[in-house]
């Protein structure tokens, strides 16, 4: 039995969202690190927990495309920016959400999980995901111009035709759904989608995330999660698998396990934020993909990225003004 929170009356109208894989790039946060020592201190904390230099990977790009290293780098980047935001007196968000890996970042920001435990978990998560499917055997692709139902029907048909796995993996926005599965099945789905007038973009990833092929990884991750200390979040966190908010620690862990082999319901998560009264969205981490997606929501008045000093300062002042913190 889960302990879903009934829709809370939130204090404020700002949501923070935390990005997942795909937002990494060599040299990330270098400018912010020159201005704020807290950036490097946060990366040092992660490095000490993991036993390798997380900052060096972030700056050089070496191993940055390897899932086991990408994940702790991106999580650390998000929490470094989160800490700077707090240090500068930024508005406390009313609610949090994270895209895939970003859900771990959101839980750290919410006080549910320590940074050191989180980076260990996502480093292991990346290793398990990489090992679940042999190199070159899996694929992911973004389908543009088809409804969720059309993508689901296409995947079901191709799975039946091939006897292989291909499933909707990320519901990112209306008309933008990522599919994942075996390489052959994904390529066949792409071909049929194009015949039906849709566009398709093969994603440069080696791991077919959020589909049934990740079930073995999820089972092993469950063991690590069972042995990790979680606290009830101090800020509500919208979960990927069901676009709901949970207060119960066991339910949070279960959702993280299911997240590996079930789709990221980002469209529905954004709708949940809207239903909670969110008017402003701040993307806390590298890149601005989630901020751009948030701008599509009718209820969102503005969305901000924070990965450069200018963007961070703009977000700080705009949110403070919007939430009535500045005269």
TrEMBL record:
EC number(s) on record?
Answer: 2.3.1.39
Q: Write down the superkingdom of origin.
A: Bacteria
Q: Which residues form the active site?
A: 100, 210
Any GO molecular function = [acyl-carrier-protein] S-malonyltransferase activity
The answer to whether UniProt assigns keyword Transferase to this entry is yes
Its family remark reads:
Belongs to the fabD family.
Instruction: State the name under which the record lists this protein.
Output: Malonyl CoA-acyl carrier protein transacylase
Q: Name one GO biological process term.
A: fatty acid biosynthetic process
The record's gene field reads fabD
* A Pfam family it matches: Acyl_transf_1
Q: Which reaction does it catalyse?
A: holo-[ACP] + malonyl-CoA = malonyl-[ACP] + CoA
GO annotation, cellular component aspect: cytosol
Query: Where does the Malonyl-CoA:ACP transacylase (MAT) domain lie?
Result: 17-325
Q: Which keywords does this chain's UniProt record carry?
A: Acyltransferase, Transferase
């Amino acid at each position: 039995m889960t302990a879903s929170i009934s829709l809370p009356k939130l204090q404020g109208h700002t949501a923070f969202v935390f990005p997942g894989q795909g937002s990494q790039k060599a040299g990330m946060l270098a400018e912010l690190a020159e201005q704020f020592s807290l950036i490097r201190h946060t990366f040092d904390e992660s490095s000490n927990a993991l036993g390798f230099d997380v900052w060096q990977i972030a700056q050089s790009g070496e191993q940055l495309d390897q899932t086991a290293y990408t994940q702790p780098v991106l999580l650390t980047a998000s929490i470094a920016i989160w800490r700077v935001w707090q240090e500068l007196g930024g508005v406390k968000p009313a609610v949090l959400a994270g895209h895939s890996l970003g859900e771990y970042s959101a839980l750290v920001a919410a006080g549910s999980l320590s940074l050191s435990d989180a980076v260990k978990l996502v480093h292991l998560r990346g290793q398990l995901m990489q090992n679940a499917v042999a190199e070159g055997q899996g694929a992911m692709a973004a389908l543009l111009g088809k409804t969720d139902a059309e993508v689901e029907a296409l995947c079901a048909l191709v799975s039946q035709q091939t006897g292989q796995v291909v499933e909707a993996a990320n519901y990112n926005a209306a008309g933008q759904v990522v599919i994942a599965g075996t390489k052959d099945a994904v390529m066949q789905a792409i071909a049929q989608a194009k015949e039906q007038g849709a566009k398709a973009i093969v994603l440069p990833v080696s791991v077919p995330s959020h589909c049934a092929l990740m079930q073995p990884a999820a089972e092993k991750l469950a063991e690590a999660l069972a042995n990790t200390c979680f606290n009830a979040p101090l800020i509500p966190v919208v979960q990927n698998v069901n676009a709901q908010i949970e207060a119960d620690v066991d339910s949070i862990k279960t959702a993280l396990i299911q997240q590996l082999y079930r789709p990221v319901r980002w469209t529905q998560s954004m709708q949940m934020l809207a239903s909670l009264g969110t008017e402003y969205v701040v993307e806390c981490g590298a890149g601005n993909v989630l901020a751009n997606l948030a701008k599509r929501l009718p209820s969102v008045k503005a969305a901000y990225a924070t990965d450069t000093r200018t963007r961070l300062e703009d977000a700080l002042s705009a949110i403070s003004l919007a939430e009535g913190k500045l005269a």
